[in-house]
Amino acid sequence: MRQLSEVQLSELQQDALAEIFNIGVGRAGSSLSLVVGSQIELTAPAISLCPLDRIQENLHGLEFRQFSMVSQKFTGDFDSQAILIFPETNALEIVRLMAGAVELSVEELSELEQEAMCEVGNIILNACMSAVADLLEIAFSGTLPVHRFGDTCNTFLEALGEESGDSMVLFLQVEMRISQHRIQGHIVFLLSVTSLAALLQCLDAYLVKSGLQ
Amino acid sequence: MTQTPNPMPSLLIVDDSRMSRMLIRAIVGQKRPDWTMIEAASGEEALLQVEACRPTFVSMDVNMPGMNGLEAAGRIRIRHPEIRIAICTANIQSSTEQESRKLNLFFIKKPVTEASIAQMIACFEE
Lengths: 213, 126
Hints:
Chain A is α+β, with helices and mostly antiparallel strands and about 210 residues long. Chain A is built from five helices and eight strands, in the order αββββααββαββα. Chain A is about 40% helix and about 25% strand. In chain A, strands 1, 2, 3, 4, 5, 6, 7 and 8 form an eight-stranded antiparallel beta sheet that branches. Chain B is about 45% helix and about 20% strand. Chain B is built from five helices and five strands, in the order βαβαβαβαβα. The model of chain B has no long low-confidence stretch (mean pLDDT about 95).
């Protein structure tokens, strides 16, 4: 089992990681804003290293019980599991806003909800990871998005599925709000510790390129 | 001798997301009500539709189950170089955009909005 001490990031590396994801989430927010036609408020990414089985303790502000969750895995120089989480009641509202130009009945909206949330997740998570890839001058390949409903944090762990071999993960979390529509959501990234060395190399190259190292 | 008038343009919308196909169809329908629209939910289906319907334009998603959109677009490009193809994707990495440009494809960033579809139509009609 990996110990926390084996996977320390320097303050500068942690700062660079937060900034890169901050830019990524900014691009994601801008994409979501185009989907729903309203301004999105985002928090700065909170970063922590934690054991996988204690992730739910780190999900700050996720007090809502019924989730609508989209996850997507990105592989490349390093791997990242990206997850978009909304309270279930908000998800339907997002789909309604997204449908915009298409007139849909309530029944049609419900029928389309899972598929539409997949596409929302696809757009937002890809927007973020595309910015991260461009800044680090690397390329990611993303899996197709998977949607899950859930009423406990077990759903969250289920979404991580294949990550369960890793005892430690680097955990980044961003909260977003669309005040106008009373919508709140979270974007969570889990970076596999098995690819941490590659991530650190990418971060160091970025710092050198930026003249900071 | 009278000339045969040009047939109205047709657009093949290729996307595994039904929501995206519906949005593209609705917005294009508002902007170009005379265009015929056909749909495909995968790269494989797109290749069949191209042979069956010979569309004027193709809007192609990238990340789909089975054959990805870049491969499908590349195959269409080889057999039917006259068809104008726009990649319309959430995968907006520079590497994906560069690959699209190499294949001589237009590159439109999702989400599907009035603005992104206006951009796509402008590419098709330029």
